[in-house]
Each structure stands twice: as C-alpha cells, then as structure tokens.
Design brief:
The protein is α/β, with parallel strands linked by helices. Helices cover 38% and strands 24% of the residues. The strands form 5 sheets. The chain has an 8-stranded antiparallel beta sheet, with helices on one face. It has a 6-stranded antiparallel beta sheet with strand order 5-6-7-8-12-13, covered by helices on one side. A 5-stranded parallel beta sheet has the order 18-17-19-20-21, sandwiched between helices. The protein starts with a strand and ends with a helix.
Length: 598
C-alpha cells in the first residue's frame, strides 16, 4: 500500500502535504515525492527513501503554491529509486498522477501505448495509467474527467488515484476502486488523503469515496462525485471525524509502534466498555444481539482476513469452537476470493480488518454477500468500506493505529472475538452460566493484567533484544490458543527488523524445523501451564539437545520451564483461552527492541 495526500486551497500546499505524508508513512516508506502547481508552472520533487529524506534533499527550495499532491510509496512495480517514485507525469508532462494500488493489465496497456509512440521513464504501472489517460484524452478530444472515467473502465486492478492537469490545476480529479480515499472539506479548501490523519487539524468534515466512484474537486464548484461506470451523480454524505490530532501524535514516544503497544490497556478497556457488563452478568453487543439467531443457526462461520487480522481470526476460531461449538473456518482473504469457495445461504462470514479498507478482504466480502451469506465486520475505522458493506458488525475502538506493524488492533480484535464467542456460547447453552460468568470476570481483568505485563517485562525484553539483535533466523513455537501468537510474534519480527522468522505449532517442530536448530538459533516458546504443558516441555528438551537458545514466555510459578530455558519472561496467570492477549505483548516488545538495536 502507499500513502496519498493532495491539497487545493489558499494555504502553503507543500507544508500541508509534507506533514500529511509523514502521518501516512506507515503505508509505505521506500520513496516519496510531491508535485506543486502555480498557474502553468510545476515543481516536481521526489526521491528514494523516507519523507524526511525528501524534505532534506530539497531543503531551501521555495515555490509559492496552494495546489499540489504527494505520495509515500511501498514499491510494487519497479524497485525503490528516484525514477520510480511518484508523482508520475505523462509524456507531454501536462498530466500528473499519484496512485495507490496495482493495475493488473498494465503490461497490455504499455504494449499498446508503446506502439502508439509513448515512451516510459519508470517501471511502474502508474506511469502506464497516466499515459493511457493522456492517450484517450488526445485521441477522443475528451475532458480530463471523461478521459479518466473512460480509462478506468478499461483497467483491471485496484487503485486510488489523484490526477492534476498543469494547464488547469484549479481542478483535482480523484477516483477509487479497492484502495481507500478520504476527502476533507474545509472553508474554501479541500484535502485528499488515504486516511483522514493528514487533514485532522484543518477539518473534521470528511467524505469517504466508495469503490467505483470518482470526484471532481474545484474551489469554484466544490465536490462533484459520480459513478465511474456510467457517470451517474452520487449524493454527498459528509461524516464527522470522531478522533482528534492528539490521538495520532507520538506523545513523547520514539516511535508510533512503542506508543501503541503502551496504549493497549486503554484500547482493550475501550473495546470492552459498554459491552462487558459483569455486574449484570451479560454481554451487550447490538450487532450480535440483533442477529444472534443467524449465528446460532449457522452451519459454519467463515472468518476472512489478511496478515495480523488473520492471526486474530485463528484465535477467534479456537474461542468460538470451544465456547459455542459452532464450526469455524479461517481463510486468507487473498486466497478465498480467487479459489471459487463454497458459500451457502445461512453461512456467516466474519471479516476482520484494522482499516476496514483491505482490498482482498473487501473483494471476498462482496463475493460472499452475492452468494447469500450473512456478513459481519470487525474493524477499527468508523465509516470504512467494510463497515458500510457488511450486514452488521462491531468496532474495536482501538483508536488510530499509525505504526506500520499492527499491535493494539490485534489485541482488541481478539478481545472482540472473545466477547462474541462468550455470547454465542451463552446463547446456545454450550457454556454454563458459571463458566460464562467466570470468563467474563477474567476478561474484565485483562486490561490491568496487560498493564502489569508492560510494566514488568520491558527490561527483560531489552536484555534479550541486545543479545539476539544480530541473529539471522528465529523460530517461534506455541500450542493450542498460542500457536496463532507464535505466528504473530514471527510476523512482527519480520515486519520490523527484517530478520527471518517462522511461527510453528510446537508439535510440528520435529517435522522439519528441528533440522535447523543449533547454537545460533534462538527459539521463542510460548508455554501455558494449563494444557499441553508436558508436551511443550518435551519440545524444549529437544531444542536444548541441539544447543538451541530458548526464550520462554511462561506463567508465573512455572519452575520446570524456568529451569530449562536460557531466558524467561514471566506473565500473570489467566485462563488459557484469554492468555493470547497477554502473551503477545512481550513478542511485540521483542520485535520493536530488536529493530531499534540493529
């Protein structure tokens, strides 16, 4: 994914765009660029590297402009370098584009354009798209809006784009299909961004474009939204942004990831607030309550997600099957949408996404809805595409997540799935009243236990991080509810430190990975005293027999593992079903501190 910011108004566009790109850098950070317009003059600035590199490279350059757009890139087509950085210009250098997404038929378009005399500087699909728009505009003598509409009806893939014609820079064209795009409405000024964070300090009024929509924005006429397919006008729905600038600031922390790890006690508490009513011995969730019969009568529940959200879905599978005895399948959305899955009427499909804009998850949801499934969304961003397309759903209330690696979104997703599993188990009678109340009481304690873990484990994790920061490979092992946490821990390390790591079910270690274990291999083992303890102790013995270094996440009082492991992080005791939330905290810290010490 990539980050897009555009501005049209009377302020200094450069400063607004630079600041906005910094807030969107979690969406991509291998190159960045800005183009500014003043009448027919343009200033194009771009570089390989982060937004700060762009700022430093062009420090001292002055260009008075109230119109421009910028981009921070996560490379898909073409390596990260200055040439492949956005924005891209058409051959005439009159049209400029920033693009988030992938144009799947770009090669066919490129061959056609080449045969018509077009040349290309970059390896990107985005440069192909802007030249395809120019080709149509010139061939058919169309307006820019009509040229973009015509082109987008011919392309295959996902995109959010901003296009500006330097000969008429007072007009910005924005279009979306599968990638997020928000429009901010100020007083005689307009903002465009991949999420609302770049314009939070200027306006709380936002429009979220739907898939298949494009907007023409000008100071003279305002915002005109139309369908890409048929040019039909779309009524504007202005929504109020519910969070403020302070929530997306670092708040004194060195990095957003560290801040968001520390925010988890609050975010989990916010997720539980108003839903878990222990004194009344009930769980109150409107989305579940109003459709509970659909869940309880479902022959199966299908959870679809990507990345970290997929891992939370795996925990949800364990919880729902144990508490409610309803069959659950967990699918990668990116595979589900392409493999012609069997979806029956009466199936319940739960989509999990932090942003609510994950393209593969959205596409899978649409397919499931068309085939008659009841679809339920779990996401963090109010008014996001998944929130709008689903039949019902629940927000995690984690607050804005800016860090590249998801942390508080993950633990709040698990919290929400725990609530759903408990309510379904209570609703169909599989969970006794006493067990339901017991788990509810324990769940209410989780925020304070998470705070205890944060306070107690940092120094130990820093010690471990310093010791293993130069390791080339890590292995993460877990059983039962904590197998998905092993996967998540490995993913965090890969994402943040670029160290290779694999998560495995502990019992599967002997089926291949054991051959890799030696004195240079750190193995993170997540141990729970309640179930599988003897089995996982045997796994640790196998690791030690091959001189592997064991980093154990254990419950307080687990003297057996404490005596065997090289490093131990002790966590408060809770039931195995709720332990994934606690066990993931030191793994988040481990990834963060290894990355900062490399």
């Amino acid at each position: 994914m990539c980050g897009i910011v555009a501005y049209l108004g009377n302020r200094d566009a450069y400063s607004i765009i630079i600041k906005g790109l910094k807030r969107l850098e979690y969406r991509g950070y291998d190159s960045a660029g800005i183009v500014l317009f003043d009448n027919k003059k343009t200033l194009l600035l771009k570089t390989k590297g982060k937004v700060e590199d762009l700022k430093s490279k062009y420090e001292g350059i002055s260009f008075n402009s109230g119109i421009g757009m910028g981009h921070t890139r996560w490379a898909t087509h073409g390596v990260p370098n200055d040439v492949n950085s956005h924005p891209h210009a058409s051959n005439s250098e009159e049209l400029f584009i920033v693009h988030n997404g992938i144009i799947e038929n770009y090669n066919e378009l490129k061959i056609m354009l080449t045969s018509n005399g077009f040349t290309f500087k970059s390896d990107t699909d985005s440069e192909v798209l802007i030249n395809f728009i120019e080709f149509i505009k010139n061939k058919h003598q169309l307006t820019l809006s009509d040229s973009i509409r015509y082109a987008l009806n011919e392309v295959v893939g996902a995109y959010s784009i901003v296009v500006i014609d330097k000969n008429n820079p007072q007009k910005i064209i924005v279009a979306k299909s599968g990638s997020p795009m928000a429009l901010g409405i100020g007083k005689n000024e307009f903002f465009v961004a991949s999420d609302v964070s770049p314009f939070l300090e200027y306006t709380k009024d936002a429009i979220y474009l739907e898939d298949g929509e494009m907007a023409e924005i000008s100071l003279e006429k305002g915002i005109d939204v139309r369908k890409i397919k048929d040019n039909n006008k779309v009524d504007l729905v202005i929504q109020q942004i519910t969070f403020d600038l302070e929530q997306i600031a670092k708040g004194g922390y060195d990095h957003f990831m560290l801040k968001e790890i520390h925010e988890q006690p609050k975010s989990i508490k916010d997720t539980l607030r108003g839903r878990l009513l222990v004194n009344k011995q009930i769980i109150r969730m409107a989305g579940i309550f109003e459709h509970e019969e659909k869940f309880l009568s479902a022959k199966r529940i299908i959870i679809i997600a990507c990345g970290t959200s997929w891992h939370s879905g795996l925990v949800g599978e364990y919880l729902i099957e144990e508490f409610a005895r309803i069959p659950v399948e967990v699918e990668y959305a990116s595979e589900f949408r392409y493999r012609n899955p069997i979806i029956n009427k009466g199936d319940v499909v739960i989509a999990i996404s932090q942003s609510g804009e994950t393209a593969d998850t959205l596409a899978a949801l649409k397919m499931a809805k068309e085939q008659g499934a009841f679809i339920y969304g779990i996401c963090n961003v109010v008014g996001s595409s998944i929130a709008r397309i689903t039949d019902a759903g629940s927000y995690t209330h984690a607050g804005p997540e800016i860090g590249v690696a998801s942390t508080k979104a993950f633990t709040t997703q698990i919290t929400l799935l725990t609530l759903i599993a408990l309510e379904l188990g209570r609703g169909n009678g599989n969970l006794s009243k006493s067990d339901f109340n017991k788990f509810c009481i324990e769940l209410e304690m989780i925020p304070s236990l998470v705070q205890k873990v944060i306070d107690s484990c940092i120094e130990k994790v820093i010690e471990i991080a310093k010791e293993f920061k130069d390791s080339k490979n890590f292995l993460y092992l877990g059983r039962g509810y904590n197998f998905p946490i092993a996967l998540e821990g490995a993913l965090k390390l890969k994402e943040i430190s670029y160290i290779h790591a694999e998560g495995y079910p502990a019992a599967e270690m002997k089926h291949g990975p054991i051959a890799l274990i030696d004195e240079n291999m750190p193995v993170v083992v997540i141990v729970n005293k309640q179930r599988h303890h003897e089995k996982i102790v045997s796994n640790i013995q196998e690791i030690k027999a091959r001189k592997g270094k064991v980093i154990a996440i254990i419950n307080e009082g687990d003297e057996a593992v404490k005596a065997m492991a090289d490093y131990v992080i002790e966590l408060p005791n809770t039931s195995e079903q709720l332990s994934p939330i606690l066990n993931t905290i030191p793994l988040q810290f481990l990834a963060y501190f290894i990355a900062t010490y490399i």
